[in-house]
Design brief:
- It is a single chain.
- The chain has 2 domains: about 10-180 and about 275-280, Rossmann fold; about 190-265, 2-Layer Sandwich (Alpha-Beta Plaits), CATH 3.30.70.
- By secondary structure, it is an alpha/beta fold.
- Helix content is about 35%, strand content about 15%.
- The mean pLDDT is about 95.
- Strands 2-1-3-4-5-10 form a 6-stranded mixed β-sheet, sandwiched between helices.
- It is globular.
- About 35% of the residues are buried.
- It contains 10 helices and 10 strands.
- Bound molecules: flavin mononucleotide.
- Flavin mononucleotide (FMN) binds near residues 71, 98, 100 and 193.
- Flavin mononucleotide (FMN) binds near residues 69, 71, 73 and 99.
Length: about 280
């Protein structure tokens, strides 16, 4: 519903990072919803390092959606580094996350802080459940998500955010409480994944057709298809290579044994995670 004082918002940019496809599914759904309301959406996928290194002009867009997975309680480091190079010039924006049903609060707080530093104006955020990346290695978190209820929430998010863009309504936005973890503590938490994923994506070379896709798609240029493994310094354990291998010959060590521990650490159960709902913050 438009008000007389509303500003035109007809061209929207959608910047997203998606290694295993969950965030892209939400981005696609937002695009579909907005285009149904005659808003043109241009998608810009920053998953590959080549795209992240291009200079992007934001001038021609009325507003921007950013979509990121949550990695170790925040937007992935490579996305934050990309954002640090952008100039917001008071452009209106919104951020949505996908996450695997564990920690997520600091992601909203820290993305707001970073976007404000870069002079973007945040009008809303949202979080959507997405099958946990580490399910490829034996976990069972948020399997089958995003699902129909997440997509319905996505539609609401798209509509409500568009209304806020048009009204330039930034009054109540995302008043996230100061989080209990400092950036330095979160940097340390980021390293924790390598305590679990001890063997980086590695090829079981029996059936490999050497298509090189793992190397081409790697977001950080870490994968070496000929060697059949990833560089330990550069790999961010995003599993893009594993998720997209047409021969299904890439794997890490099996972390199924760490699943119960993970649930206990978070004082939760598989059922509780499966029942979690996606949320919008206006
Ligand atoms: C390195 C890494 C760290 C992650 N950290 C978290 C986390 O802190 N909390 C959480 O709930 N999910 C976490 N996840 C799961 C992802 O946020 C989730 O699976 C997301 O939907 C993946 O998005 P994509 O399919 O677009 O890549 C992590 C995944 C990876 C690869």
């Amino acid at each position: 519903m438009k008000n007389a004082t509303d500003k035109e918002v007809n061209k929207v940019l959608m910047v997203f990072f998606s290694a295993t496809g969950n965030t892209k599914k939400i981005a696609d759904r937002i695009q579909q919803k907005l285009e149904g309301m005659e808003v043109k959406v241009t998608k810009y996928d920053i998953t590959s390092y080549q795209e992240r290194n291009k200079v992007l002009s934001l001038d021609e867009y009325d507003a921007i959606f950013f979509g990121f997975p949550i990695y170790s309680l925040r937007a992935p480091r490579v996305c934050r580094e990309w954002l640090e190079r952008q100039e917001g010039n008071d452009k209106l924006c919104s951020v949505f996350f996908t996450y695997g049903g564990f920690g997520k609060e600091p992601a909203h707080y820290y993305i707001k802080e970073l976007l404000t530093e870069r002079r973007f104006v945040l009008v809303s955020t949202a979080e959507f459940l997405g099958a946990h990346t580490f399910n490829y290695s034996g976990w069972q978190a948020a399997e089958g998500r995003p699902n129909q209820s997440d997509f319905e929430m996505t539609d609401d998010y798209a509509v409500q955010t568009l209304q806020k863009f048009r009204a330039r309504d930034v009054k109540t936005v995302c008043d996230f409480e100061k989080v209990k973890y400092t950036s330095e503590q979160l940097d340390q938490a980021e390293q924790f994944r390598f305590h679990l994923i001890k063997q980086l994506p590695t090829r079981d070379d029996k059936a490999c057709t050497m298509c090189m896709l793992c190397e081409t798609l790697c977001p950080t240029n870490a994968m070496n298809a000929l060697k059949g493994t990833a560089d330990a310094e550069a790999c961010i354990a995003c599993f893009r290579c594993i998720a997209n291998c047409p021969d299904s010959v890439l794997h890490t060590n099996d972390i199924a044994a760490a699943w119960e521990n993970k649930l206990n650490m978070h004082q939760t159960t598989k059922k509780a995670i499966d029942q979690m709902k996606s949320q919008i913050f206006l």
